[in-house]
Write a structure and sequence with these properties.
membrane, two-stranded antiparallel sheet, TPR repeat, Tetratricopeptide repeat protein, 2 strands, single chain, Serine Threonine Protein Phosphatase 5, Tetratricopeptide repeat, mainly alpha
Length: 191
């Protein structure tokens, strides 16, 4: 493990992978990004620094969502998606954010945007929300296919044959006799 200094804007940062993790935990994503870039400038194949950089981009992107700056958020999340191409949640988040930003453009300085849209956008971009939506979608598809199958069977069995009516009548008579037997037994037991 090594440690070094980063000089930027009259500030001195000491940096290591642990410091990057702490910065991410403290939600200081801009500083974590700076630290990761400096770590990568020393060792371009440093996977931990790439991880810190990607997490910083995701954090910065989500902060931009809260500010209402959807274009910047999409750019940052796309950078992260290039590093993590198999992260489906991140891709869905970017797609949803693109849909939100294309459907209605609200200037980032708007107070209305800060009060209502951002809280909804953050809720919609939650990975658990995506998982539950996928589960719900698959359940709805299975229910729909079962209903279609039942409907096709129901249409085929609409016309009862004479034998089926006979069996239905016999079962109904037996059920009526059983119910009367139960009712009379109950009356005799009460006396």
């Amino acid at each position: 493990m090594f440690s070094f200094e980063i000089f930027s804007e009259d500030r001195t940062f000491f940096g290591s992978h642990e410091d990057g993790g702490k910065l991410l935990e403290e939600k200081q994503f801009a500083q974590a990004e700076t630290l990761a870039v400096s770590l990568l400038s020393i060792n371009p194949s440093d996977s931990k620094a790439e991880f810190i950089l990607t997490r910083a981009w995701i954090g910065l992107g989500r902060e931009e969502i809260k500010k209402g700056n959807y274009a910047r958020a999409i750019d940052l999340l796309n950078k992260a998606a290039l590093k993590w191409p198999f992260d489906r949640d991140l891709k869905k988040e970017i797609e949803l954010l693109s849909m939100i930003s294309s459907k209605k453009y609200v200037p980032p300085d708007s107070s209305l945007n800060r009060k209502s849209s951002n809280s909804q956008a953050v809720i919609l971009l939650d990975p658990d929300f995506f998982h539950s939506m996928d589960d719900l979608k698959s359940e709805l598809h299975s229910i729909l296919s079962a209903l279609r199958e039942f409907d096709s069977l129901h249409c085929e069995s609409d016309s009862f044959s004479k034998r089926e009516y006979l069996f239905l009548g016999i079962i109904s008579v037996l059920a009526l006799v059983s119910f009367l037997n139960l009712f009379l037994s109950f009356l005799l037991w009460k006396r």
